[in-house]
């Protein structure tokens, strides 16, 4: 489907006429036009509708310009989220308007970040993403949107997520392992306990060896 050019650009009659011709093109001509604008063969699965949409998008992109940096960044984030968890729900940081100020308290100091149209301003410098600023503030690897409260933090945690399990998880695993070491045949456990008690009585040690 054709899209309207941005408000600061007038529609090009030549472009609009070509977009109109796409609607009546048979699939053979659409495939040929696809090769012209993309310099590659069209995907075999593309029918007439997808061919028209792809060609129309490329024609308008060349005439009126491509995606803005912010839109491209959003698409990149979506692709990374999908690649990390195919089939899962894609969750992106909340979008905030340029001019907004993010405030984060860290180790008794207040840090203010201003949202720009392209990036973020912090202490007189411009950064491409919030994670760079979070690392600069903390000295450790952080998810920027989470650090500044744009995403919910992990339950009962205010620390960056590391590659391994938490100390609490490790302690729980060690405790479970220790408990499993005492499991087994009940008679064996009673025999060991009786032997330990007998040794304690013979040595006079009230706690056993």
Number of helices: 8
Rg on CA atoms, Å: 31 Å
* Spatial shape: elongated
Low-confidence stretches: 154-159, 161-209
Beta content? 5-15%
**What is the H-and-E element order?**
HHHHEEEEHHHH
Number of strands: 4
Q: Give the proportion of residues in helices.
A: 40-55%
- Largest sheet strand order: 1-2-3-4
Protein name: DUF2924 domain-containing protein
Region (Disordered): 151-209
Biased composition (Low complexity): 169-181
Pfam families: DUF2924
General description of the model:
The protein has 209 residues and is of the alpha+beta class. Among the domains are: 13-64; 100-148, no CATH class. Helix content is 48%, strand content 10%. The chain has 8 helices and 4 strands; from the N terminus they run H-H-H-H-E-E-E-E-H-H-H-H. The chain has helices at 13-22, 27-38, 48-64, 69-84, 130-138, 144-147, 167-181, 186-203, and strands at residues 101-106, 109-116, 119-122, 125-127. Strands 1-2-3-4 form a 4-stranded antiparallel sheet, covered by helices on one side. Helix 2 (27-38) packs parallel to helix 3. The radius of gyration is 31 Å and the shape is elongated.
Summed up:
This protein is 48% helix and 10% strand. The chain has 209 residues and is an alpha+beta fold.
Topology:
Layout: H1 13-22, H2 27-38, H3 48-64, H4 69-84, E1 101-106, E2 109-116, E3 119-122, E4 125-127, H5 130-138, H6 144-147, H7 167-181, H8 186-203
Antiparallel strand pairs: 1-2, 2-3, 3-4
Protein name: DUF2924 domain-containing protein
Region (Disordered): 151-209
InterPro entries: DUF2924
């Amino acid at each position: 489907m054709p899209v309207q050019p941005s408000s600061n650009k007038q529609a090009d009659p030549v472009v609009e006429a070509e977009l109109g011709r796409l609607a009546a093109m048979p699939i053979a001509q659409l495939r040929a036009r696809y090769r012209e604008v993309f310099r590659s063969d069209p995907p075999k699965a593309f029918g007439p509708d997808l061919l028209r949409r792809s060609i129309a998008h490329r024609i308008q992109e060349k005439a009126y310009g491509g995606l803005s940096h912010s839109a491209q960044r959003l698409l990149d984030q979506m692709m990374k989220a999908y690649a990390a968890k195919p089939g899962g729900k894609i969750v992106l940081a909340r979008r905030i308007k340029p001019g907004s100020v993010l405030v984060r308290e860290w180790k008794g100091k207040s840090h203010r970040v201003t949202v720009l149209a392209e990036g973020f301003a912090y202490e007189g410098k411009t950064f491409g993403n919030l994670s760079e600023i979070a690392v600069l503030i903390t000295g450790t690897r952080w998810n920027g949107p989470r650090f500044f409260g744009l995403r919910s933090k992990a339950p009962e945690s205010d620390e960056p997520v590391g590659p391994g399990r938490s100390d609490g998880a490790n302690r729980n695993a060690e405790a479970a392992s220790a408990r499993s070491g005492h499991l087994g045949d009940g008679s064996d456990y009673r025999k060991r306990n009786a032997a330990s008690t007998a040794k304690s009585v013979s040595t006079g040690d009230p706690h056993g060896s």
